Amino acid sequence: MVKSLLLVGVGGQGTILVSRILSEGLVNEGYDVKMSEIHGMAQRGGSVTTQIKFGEKVHSPSINVGEADVLVAFEKVEAARHITQLKKGGTLIVNDEEMYPLPVLAGLEEYPMGVIEELNDKIENIKVINARHIAEELGETRAQNIVMLGTTVKALGIENIDWIKLIKENLPNRVHEVNVKAFEQGLNL
User: Fold this and answer.
1) HSE of 74 in the Cβ direction (CA atoms, 13 Å)?
2) For 26, how many CA atoms within 13 A lie in the half-sphere containing its CB?
3) Which of 15, 26, 32, 145 could in theory staple to 9 by disulfide, Cβ–Cβ 3.0 to 4.6 A?
């Protein structure tokens, strides 16, 4: 059986790093894994989307409308933007984070209000987390993505993989301790 995982966020949030760690772990576990990345002006705060499919035999990473088993949104408006790709009964993991795009920062548009409430009304299986708050409590705001990794691993039921080793292999030594704690916090949510 093939599982589909869609990760969405804004450039600079570490979405692609999490996707690579997940893919590497799944490959190490013996799954056939296909991954694709889309960077929409990612370095300037644009959308970042990663599609991952894994299973016994995967032919393409493409996730169509209504096909994602799990949608992981590192930013809440990105969750709303991509919600149609989540299958009925699928799981939405959303970081209660606001990243303002350029038109909002320039005062040309307003950031939408009530996004989480709207998602709660539409999605039965939703997990809203405040990864920024958890990361700040650990003393490293940039560890939000690893909190999200932990929550995603738990949602997929793939805790048996050595994620700590993969985190250490993909991050500098100086941030190992805080990111291991961030992962564990996400896993326990």
Assistant:
1) 31
2) 26
3) 15
Paired strand residues for 68: 86
Token pair for 181: 């704690």
Amino acid at 94: V
Query: Which residue(s) pair with 54 in the sheet?
Result: 3, 33
Q: What is the pLDDT of residues 46-99, one digit of tens each?
A: 788 999 999 999 999 999 999 999 999 999 999 999 999 999 999 999 999 888
Residue 95: phi and psi, rounded to 5, are: -80, 125
- DSSP-assigned states of every residue in 54-107: EES--------TT-EEEEEESSHHHHHHHGGGEEEEEEEEEE------HHHHTT
The domains found in the chain, sorted by start residue, are 3-187 (3.40.920.10)
Q: What is the pTM of this model?
A: 0.93
